[in-house]
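User: Please check token order:
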Amino acid sequence: MSTISSSDSANLSLIQTLITQNRTAYNRLTEEISSGTEYLMRSDDPATTNRASLVDLDEAQQTQWSTNIKYATNWETSTYSYLDDISDQFSSAVTLATQANSTITESSGWTSISSSLSNVVDSILSDSNASYLGTSLFAGTGTSTDSSTNTFTKGNASVSGFYTITYNGNDTQRTIKTSSSTAASALTTYGTTGNSLFSGINYTYTDTDSSGNTITYTTPSGTSYNSLEAISDLQSITNIGTASLSSDQLSYLQDKYKMVDSSTGTTDTPTITTIVSRIMGVISKGSTQISNSLATNSASSSRMISLKTTVSNAVSTDETQYSDLVGIDTAKAATDLSTMKTVLQASMTLAGNISSMSLVNYI
């Protein structure tokens, strides 16, 4: 039968308390070695734990911004591929318009030109209605076309045989958050809106009168041209043929492509030959406009790369700071763990010895 004195009983109680504390510390250090992170309670070190919490929060924010930037970067990459194809199609349209303009008097080969222009229009419409992960690339934001494929639609014009191109989106660019600033101006914009692709074209047209004098014509005030519609109009003209245009069709084209004589301020009534020449000019300006959109897209992609670098550096800094705050010295921790194990085993042995004492031990 085990019998121990009151003093040994008190010592045993103390040793058992120390064993419990030692075991808790041992388990905690084992966990820290496994994770490589110091397990800190606020009561241990309030200043360090608060700082570690703030750094951890900042890293989470930076990681989210990195995700935002990755999405926008992929968006711009997808946009570029479609804009690049649209640019190629416009180059083809310029070549076809030049061919049509040079053969206006005899309309030779126009059947082939018309067929090629029809393919160009269909290809451009397909590209301009493209989407990324189910969201329209060129519709802007907050529109009914945001997640559909009818950003641009082709409809019938007021006269038969001709068509309109309608943009159904808006001019609001997409935005992402890349900093902690709450100001609206701090949001990073990206993307290309469809209103800047084909519409809003103004240009100067020059011609020569019967006396050999140069006449400069400008776009009428308050109007502009749509380059994709111009390609469609040329396709219709080459399909119908200049000699077969009805009076309504010719009037439609004359009203659409009329220009102002800059020297007299009068608006002209262009011939079909002049109309085809002006359409060629609008298509050429449209090609330049698409090239400008490509340049803007490239600049946005470069900005995303720069932002990605900035945010990645911030994440790396946060990781280093967090590691400095809560990281452990693995070698020292292993030594401490070995010491704790030895002390724990000795304490448990001592407690066992005291518990097994009998009256013989006190004689």
About this structure: Residues 39-43, 358-363 have pLDDT under 50 and may be disordered. The radius of gyration is 39 Å.
